[in-house]
Design a protein that fits this description.
The protein is an alpha/beta fold. It folds into three domains: 181 residues, Thiamin diphosphate (ThDP)-binding fold, Pyr/PP domains (Rossmann fold); 167 residues, Rossmann fold, CATH 3.40.50; 195 residues, Rossmann fold (3-Layer(aba) Sandwich), CATH 3.40.50.970. It is 39% helix and 16% strand. The strands form four sheets. It has a six-stranded parallel β-sheet, sandwiched between helices.
Length: 565
């Protein structure tokens, strides 16, 4: 390996990791990296308009592909600080994002230099680990460490700060300090459950009357749905999914109850409240699933907690049995153990009752949808979208009242088809995330649902989509307000509205000005045709849908109990 600059070494490290796409915004602090990327024909550089949205793209790419998503903030200081929101979002989703930022020259640190900020301190709280590379010779080593850390369970974002003098410095890269393939330094296998633990868990499950599986990110993110389904089939018991992971089990599977918890559907939520043995399979039983209370999970249930992150086991609720290991692997072990046991009549009765309840719930969801043409109601919009969005589509969502309603109102026919902000509750995530997913899965349709406020934050990335031919469809549910907050002001603060209403340009016209396709929809009867046209147009597309501004819902009613609402 010849002598290289630190910037060239960074790109060689990306090539060694078989990086396919890099998102970034160029800056003077990292010109050595970008100059080296010019010659790296195997890496597709996607220039973005904001480091925050670029991080969401890397996040979406990482979640969809299972590989690391890479974002470069070319400028230290403000370029780097713009990464913080995106990295915080990735951390909440345990998403493997490798974030790279230029940094101040080493000799200028602590001198109040131009664009100086303590990036090591800034990123430490919002990443799995942060490094500031001390010299050019250590660039390959710390890039290896970054990729290994981001992809080691539980996954999460990492940050590499590269001072200017490190990027311009020269070094020889040979032997252990050189560039290695991932297989040479990463573990290839994940832990399984001990035979004693599997036997105990199988006995608990098959001696239950009302057993339940809660499948979370540990099933969804690993593609472990087949193993989870095999286990549920062996037991003949329903599966619910944790919020934001409604796609962990295919919608049409007869044992799939959908998302549970305070924001889940009533059938799945009731199952969690009535189950006497709960197998928490790759889920933390965290905030969105339980609000950390027994209001959303049976206090008397024996919990078997399966997690790859040992500190998550029994963290929020006392458990009967904790098993540290890979959720799909343990599901297979339990399937084998349970197959040898006889089915219990009580379990069959529990599952038969669930099946009837689930069928009735879905029929009611269809029947109760308000199909008025105008003003358009969310339930009618979601019913229409269920009929027009292809079954193989990936669907992304923001936070906010309309997207929260949509999370369980849409049908997810294949795993890894729902991408949300999860516990970070971020507005302005969906569109950018969808661009990253489309690059990871170019053969799949990608439909991004957003409110008008969130899309207004991020619409500059329309040019990124157009310039790079990233053809996603964004459905803007336009109700002219910050819907969740306006609902709280309506329900708990005497309709004393402040800052709740917003104005926006016609997003279909804005899309056309960027070179994308735009569609304006004011009637429910126009939705199907517009979305079908957007999917078929061969361009990035925006469908601006006028939704009833009064169709608001307060999700966090628990937060305002003190106001008597």
């Amino acid at each position: 390996m010849p002598t290289l600059s630190g910037g060239q070494a960074a790109v060689e490290a990306l090539k060694a990791e078989e990086t396919k796409h890099v998102f970034g915004l160029i800056g003077s602090a990292t010109m050595e990296i970008f100059d080296a990327l010019y010659d790296a024909k195997a890496i597709n550089f996607i220039g973005v308009h904001d480091e925050r949205t670029g991080t969401h793209m890397a996040d979406g790419y990482a979640r969809a592909s299972g590989e690391a998503g890479v974002i470069i903030a070319g400028q230290n200081g403000p370029g780097a600080t713009n990464l913080v929101t995106g990295l915080s979002q990735a951390a909440a989703a345990f998403s493997p994002v490798v974030s790279i930022a230029g940094a101040l020259s080493s000799q200028h640190v602590y001198r109040d230099a131009f664009q100086e900020v303590d990036q090591q301190a800034l990123f430490t709280p919002v990443t799995k680990k942060t490094w500031t590379v001390p010299d050019a010779g250590r660039v390959p080593e710390l890039f290896r460490e970054a990729f290994r850390t981001t992809l080691t369970p539980r996954r999460g974002p990492v940050q590499i700060n590269l001072p200017r003098d490190v990027l311009s410095g020269q070094s020889d890269y040979e032997g252990l300090t050189g560039f290695q393939k991932p297989k040479n330094y990463r573990s290839q296998y994940l832990p399984a459950g001990s035979s004693e633990a599997i036997a105990q868990a199988a006995s608990l499950l098959m001696n239950a009357k009302n057993p339940l599986i809660i499948a979370g990110g540990g099933i969804k993110n690993t593609g472990g749905h087949e193993q989870a389904i095999a286990l549920a089939t062996a037991m003949n018991t329903p599966i619910v999914t944790s919020p934001g992971h409604g796609d962990a089990i295919p919608f049409t599977h007869p044992l799939n109850a959908g998302q549970m918890g305070p924001r889940g559907n009533p059938v799945a939520s009731r199952l969690a409240k009535e189950a006497d043995v709960i197998l928490a399979l790759g889920t933390r039983l965290g905030f969105n699933s339980t609000f950390y209370t027994y209001d959303n999970i049976n206090k008397d249930a024996a919990i078997i907690h399966v997690e790859l992150e040992p500190t998550a086991i029994g963290r929020f609720f006392p458990i009967e049995l904790g098993i540290w290991g890979d959720a799909p692997t343990i599901a297979t072990q339990l399937s084998h153990a349970i197959t040898a046991m006889k089915h219990r009549a009580q379990i069959n009765a529990w599952t038969d009752a669930f099946t009837a309840d689930r069928k009735a719930y879905l029929a009611k969801r269809e029947a109760d949808a308000v199909m008025d043409d105008s003003p358009m109601q969310p339930s009618g919009l979601f019913k229409t979208l269920r009929g027009v969005i292809p079954h193989d589509a990936a669907i992304t969502m923001d936070a906010g009242t309309l997207c929260l309603q949509a999370t369980d109102a849409m049908n997810y026919h294949s795993p890894k088809s729902l991408f949300t902000p999860l516990d970070f509750g971020l507005v302005g995530f969906s569109f950018a995330c969808g661009l990253g997913i489309k690059l990871a899965c170019p053969e799949r349709p990608v439909v991004s649902l957003m409110g008008d406020g969130g899309f207004g934050m991020t619409l500059s990335e329309l040019s990124t989509a157009v310039d790079n031919g990233i053809n996603t469809v964004t459905v803007v549910m336009n109700n002219g307000c910050w819907g969740a907050e306006k609902a709280y002001q309506r329900d708990f603060f005497g309709e004393r509205y402040i800052g709740a209403d917003i104005s926006s340009p016609p997003f279909d016209k804005v899309a056309e000005m960027y070179g994308a396709a735009g569609f304006s929809v004011n009637k429910l009867s126009e939705v199907s045709e517009a979305v079908e046209a957007a999917l078929a147009c061969g361009k990035p597309a925006v469908v601006d849908v006028a939704v009833d501004p009064n169709a608001l819902y307060s999700f966090r009613r628990d937060s305002f109990k003190h106001r008597g609402g």
